[in-house]
Amino acid sequence: MIRIGMLTSGGDCQALNAAMRGVAKTLYNSKEEVEIYGFLNGYQGLIYGKFKLLNYSDFSGILTKGGTFLGSSRTPFKTIQDPDENGLDKVAAMKQNYYKLQLDCLVILGGNGTHKTANLLSQQGLNVVTLPKTIDNDLWGTDMTFGFQSAVDIATTCIDQIHTTAASHGRVFIVEVMGHKVGYLTLNAGMAGGADIILLPEIPYDVDKIVKKIKERHDRGSRFTIIACAEGAISKEDAKLSKKEYEKKRAKSKYPSVSYELAAQIYDAIGLDVRVTVPGHTQRGGDPCPYDRVFASRLGSEAGMLILKREYGFMVGYKNREIVKVPLEDVAGKLKMVDPKSSIIKEAKKLGISFGD
Ligand code: F6P
Fold first, then answer.
1. Domain that holds residue 264
2. Burial class, 61, CB count within 10 angstroms (exposed 0-12 / middle 13-18 / buried 19+)
3. I want to staple 227 with a disulfide (CB 3.0 to 4.6 A). Which of 126, 174, 202, 316 is the partner?
4. Burial environment of residue 167 by CB neighbours within 10 A (0 to 12, 13 to 18, 19 or more)
5. How far apart are CA 9 and CA 258, in angstroms?
6. Which atom of ligand 1 is nearest to the CA of 138?
7. What is residue 105's predicted lDDT score, i.e. its pLDDT?
8. Is 277 exposed, middle or buried (0-12, 13-18, 19+ CB in 10 A)?
9. Boundary of a domain, candidates 256, 284, 312
C-alpha cells in the first residue's frame, strides 16, 4: 500500500489539475494499492488538517480544467517557522498530520516559495516529491514550468487585441504583463505579439531610450507603438536603490504600477496619447493550452513513477528536452532569470525590438 498526500500551493496556474491527474493515474494504474489524500488550500490544509480522501473519479474530467480542484493559498516561507496567531507551531503541525495519516509521501505542486517550504519539510524527514508550476517560468532547475505556455497565449492575445486599436488610433499602448521579478512571460508574449519595446525586470530601462524609439517609429511613419512591460520592470535610476528604498518609493508613488508611471513620463516627453492595459490575473486563468496539458501530464506521470520507486526529495523538472529529477535542496531559494546576454535577447534586438537599455 502506498499512501500519499497532495497539495497545490501559491498562486494558481493552468494545468495544476492535469499534473495531479498525471500523478494519480500513474499510481492507480500500477500494481500497488494506493490511497490519495488531498489537502485543501495549499499548506493551510496540511497545517490545520483539512483534507479529503480522493478516489479515481476525482481525477476524471480534470485534464482540461484550469485552476486547482484542491484550492490554493499563499503561505509565506518567511513566517512558516513562526507560530500562528494561536501559538501553533506550523511546521510541527504539518509533520503531525503527515504522520497521523501514515503518509509515505507528499506531492507538492508549487513555485518558488512553495519549494522552500517543501525543502524544509524534506529536511525535517518527510518524503516529498514536487512539481514545478508557475506562469512566471522562474523556477531554478527546470527549463519550463507548467502554466507558462498557457499564460504566454493569453498575454499574446491581449497584445494582439491592443494592436488593432493602437493602429486605428495612432496611440502608444503599454500592456503590463505579470512577473514581478522575472521577465520570461513578458519576453515571450512581447515577441509573439510583435511588441516594439519590451521591458523586463532583468534589463533596467532608460525612459529617454524608450522615447527615442517611439520617435524613431513615428519618423518612419508608424502611428503607434506597443510596449510589453513586465509588472516588475524597473528604470536604471530605480535599479540603483536598495530593495527597501525602492519599495518605499513605490508605496509613496501616485501611480498604481510602473506602467502608469511610464505612461505619464512618455506623455510628458512627447505629448502622445498613451494607454495602459493590465490583463492581470486573466493570465493565470482559464483552461490549460494543449502544450501544458501534455507537459503537466508527463511531469505528473514521472512523479508517480518516482513514488512507486520510493525515490523522494526531488522536483520533477525538464532539462534539454528530457524530464529530469532535481534534488529539492538545489531548487529551493533560487530564481531562474532571463539572462540579458542570452541569444533570445540578442535576436530580439536584431529584430528591432528595444529593451529600453
Ligand atoms: O507567481 C505568479 C504570479 O502571477 C506573478 O506573476 C504575480 O506577480 C503574482 O503571482 C501575483 O500574485 P497574487 O495572485 O498573490 O496577487
1. 151-284
2. exposed
3. 174
4. middle
5. 28
6. 1
7. 98
8. middle
9. 284
136 in catalytic set: yes
Please answer whether residues 102 and 54 qualify as being in contact, where contact means their C-beta atoms are separated by less than 8 angstroms: no
For the stretch 109-145, pLDDT in tens is 999 999 999 999 999 999 999 999 999 999 999 999 9
**Antiparallel, parallel or unpaired: β 51-54 and 172-177:** unpaired
Are 120 and 251 within one domain?
Answer: no
Q: What is residue 45's DSSP assignment?
A: H
Interval between CA 34 and ligand 1 midpoint (Å): 34
Torsions phi, psi for 247 (to 5 deg): -60, -40
Containing 150, the helix (H) or strand (E) segment is helix 148-169
Residues in the chain where the model's pLDDT stays below 70: none
Structural domain includes residue 350: no
Q: Does residue 155 line the site of ligand 1, with CB under 6 A?
A: no
Q: How far is the C-alpha of 334 from the C-alpha of 119, rounded, in Å?
A: 12
The pLDDT value recorded for residue 293 is 98
Residue to probe by mutation, ligand 1, list 77, 133, 178, most atoms within 8 Å of CB: 178
| Residue in 136, 138, 153, 196 annotated catalytic | 136
The residue behind cell 525590438 is 353
